[in-house]
Specification:
The chain is an all-alpha fold. The protein contains two helices and no strands. Helix content is 84%, strand content 0%. The protein is elongated, with a radius of gyration of 21 Å.
Length: 62
């Protein structure tokens, strides 16, 4: 995965702990989780919007 192994991930986690502290990590994780959820929802909504008009046109042809 992009050449990132376990030692690199541990180093990144330690740096994040030093910068933000242990108290802020749950807030950061929650924010990232919400952002990912919103992104997925927007992507699925866009797919539905693209498929919607095509289906209507197919119904009109029948």
């Amino acid at each position: 995965m992009f050449g990132i192994g376990m030692p690199e991930l541990i180093i990144i986690l330690v740096i994040i702990l030093i910068i933000f502290g242990a108290g802020k990590l749950p807030e950061i994780g929650s924010g990232i989780g919400k952002a990912i959820k919103n992104f997925k929802g927007a992507a699925e909504e866009e797919e539905k919007d693209k498929k919607g008009p095509q289906k209507i046109e197919e119904d009109k042809k029948s």
